[in-house]
């Protein structure tokens, strides 16, 4: 019922020239897929993503967006610009933005609204830091982030939203969440979405797991009934590991 999504978050890696070569290779090697593949490179790479992937099975998008629609906001990139470049997805609320750029839940919500206005699907990242998990409060903490980002947000179609559960302690550390812990959180997220938007909606929204996904641990994470794919950082940078993940998703 839910099509798996493998999304590569490239963070601040690869130049546009390097990406162009990589995209060409991916196109050459990618088999026909039942799952969906998306690449989320840095802003300057997006025109090359469009050049490579327009009218293909590969989607692309950005890692962040401005909370403003337009105007004197030096350095910002608007949702309208991303829509013009053909972005299908864009990350909001990544823990690196929350940590290094002091992004609050309220700001994440504004960014999510700007994307929805332009018909771009937000990949909303939520997840707890280590000390919160150690206190046994991971579920309420993460559901609090979800509720704050979706406060008053009207959604009609489950394709309008992707949620990524990314425990902060698992990102870039080589320590992934145990599949059953991920499943517990994904179930809690789905049930919160069901209360907010109805059961039919929640049953169709994709909830990705992110945090040190690699070809060795992805199959066991994917075997969980509520894990609908991965948001992948490090392992999305090399063609070989990215293709291995995509093939595991099928
Ligand atoms: C991420 O940045 O979203 C991420 C999950 O990174 P990594 O896969 O490297 O842990």
CATH superfamily: Aldolase class I
The run of helices and strands is EHEHEHEHHEHHEHHEHEH
Distance between the termini: 15 Å
Helix percentage range: 40-55%
CATH topology: TIM Barrel
Mean pLDDT equals 98
For the report, how would you describe the main beta sheet?
A: 8 strands, parallel, barrel
User: What is the CATH C level class, in words?
Assistant: Alpha Beta
Residue fraction in strands:
15-25%
Number of helices: 11
Strand order of the largest sheet: 1-2-3-4-5-6-7-8
Describe the structure concisely:
42% of the residues lie in helices and 15% in strands.
Description:
The protein is α/β, with parallel strands linked by helices. The protein has one domain: TIM Barrel. Helix content is 42%, strand content 15%. It has eleven helices and eight strands. It has helices spanning 16-29, 46-53, 79-84, 95-100, 105-117, 130-134, 138-150, 179-197, 199-204, 218-222, 239-249, and strands at residues 5-9, 36-40, 58-62, 89-92, 121-126, 162-165, 206-210, 229-232. The protein has an eight-stranded parallel barrel with strand order 1-2-3-4-5-6-7-8, surrounded by five helices. Helix 3 (79-84) links the parallel strand 3 (58-62) and strand 4. Helix 1 packs parallel to helix 2. It is globular, with a radius of gyration of 17 Å. The mean pLDDT is 98. The site of phosphoenolpyruvate has 13 residues, from strand 8.
